[in-house]
Amino acid sequence: MARWEPGARDRLGEVAMRLFADQGFERTTVAEIAEAAGLTERTFFRHFADKREVLFAGQDDFLQLFLEPIDAAPDGTAPYELIGRSLVAAGAFFTDERRAFARARAVIIAREPALQERELAKLATLKTRLGEVFGERGVGEPAATLAAEVGVMVFHLSFQQWITKGEKRSMATIAHERLAALTQLVTE
Amino acid sequence: MARWEPGARDRLGEVAMRLFADQGFERTTVAEIAEAAGLTERTFFRHFADKREVLFAGQDDFLQLFLEPIDAAPDGTAPYELIGRSLVAAGAFFTDERRAFARARAVIIAREPALQERELAKLATLKTRLGEVFGERGVGEPAATLAAEVGVMVFHLSFQQWITKGEKRSMATIAHERLAALTQLVTE
């Protein structure tokens, strides 16, 4: 049995983020991360499948953030209302404590095309799942696909704003504002 | 002076598309395209900067398709109305003659991540330019960026439908339907 390393995951994550920021994601090895954290590579791999997982951990949890509020909504709730509930409820995950990490992460991802592709794939998966969920709730086409596109678009725009330097408002507030702007765009 | 090759550009384009479809884009060389078309590489390069341009010619024209109808609209036209005018007017470019090419092109692009990235970059440029144009017309933020996102999203969804097997309706008809679905999503 491996010795229990209190806080090892957090320490490895923090050290990895610092190294990715300083010397680039591609150039950073797991051996370097482990050494800088004063831990072994084996400990690293107990917590992360690979170095990319430092940036992309919790894909399933990420999807559930958006899908659970929809599952919880009464039958017959209009799709746009579902999008609003989903974004506002998911917003609670994006706490102020996460904002600094999200900003550092965005800088690292912006520098590496392969990471950008991975990030886009994450949003594409969310879009696909949302479309399926709307379909299962009886929303036809093209409305289900369109609603999924709208949901991911508003999330993405809100997230970009949330990590903008100087932005202090919560994710839920920003998402709400973006949805209101969309409603205004379409109705005026 | 080079000898005039009547129809050389069309012939090179057709041969290139066939080779890309049969053996993949990456594996196909300009030398092969020229040889299969019974022309020289030099002739190829008089018509295309590189083999990628067979798939991505006319980027500026593509942008103008969407921007000109907006430029032509009276001051004070609401952004959503501008999106509608832009998409319906641009739709005239996507003729039935182009549809077979667009379908073959989509299959080739779907197979190569680098081409997908190029295609996404094309849509990203359209999004940026639309956002700028809305801004120049006095639309504030976040409305201008949101309107640009909506325009590109509806175009992209409409285009995907337009190239779907069996689809016979015009691009303008499909774009109109997608916009109506968006209006319904947001208002009901």
What does this entry show, briefly?
2 copies of one chain form a homodimer. Chain A is mostly helical and 188 residues long.
Describe this structure in words.
- Two copies of one chain form a homodimer.
- Chain A is elongated and about 55 Å long.
- The longest helix of chain A is centred in the middle third of the chain and has 24 residues, at 113-136.
- Chain A has two domains: 8-53, Arc Repressor Mutant, subunit A; 58-187, Tetracycline Repressor, domain 2, CATH 1.10.357.
- Chain A contains ten helices and no strands.
- Chain A is mainly alpha-helical.
- Chain A starts with 7 loop residues before the first helix and ends with a helix.
- At the A-B interface, helix 8, helix 9 and helix 10 of A face helix 8, helix 9 and helix 10 of B.
- Chains A, B: It comes from Flexivirga oryzae.
List keywords for this structure.
Arc Repressor Mutant, subunit A, mainly alpha, Tetracycline Repressor, domain 2, homodimer, 0% strand
Query: What top-tier CATH class of the largest domain in chain A fits best?
Result: Mainly Alpha
What is the CATH superfamily of the largest domain in chain A? Answer: Tetracycline Repressor, domain 2
What is the fold-level CATH name, i.e. the topology of the largest domain in chain A?
A: Tetracycline Repressor, domain 2
Residue share in β-strands of chain A: under 5%
Mean pLDDT of chain A: 93
The major pleated sheet of chain A works out as: none
Q: What gyration radius of chain A follows from the Cα positions, in whole Å? A: 19 Å
Q: Could you say how many structural domains of chain A there are in total? A: 2
Structural class of chain A: mainly alpha
The number of E-state strands of chain A comes to 0
In CATH terms, what is the architecture of the largest domain in chain A? Answer: Orthogonal Bundle
Largest interface: A-B, 26 and 26 residues
Q: Low-confidence segments of chain A, ≥5 residues, pLDDT <50?
A: none
Classify the oligomer.
homodimer
Share of helix among residues of chain A?
Answer: over 70%
Coarse morphology of chain A: elongated
Secondary-structure element string of chain A: HHHHHHHHHH
Give the count of helical stretches of chain A.
Answer: 10
Report, as a whole number of angstroms, the end-to-end distance of chain A: 64 Å
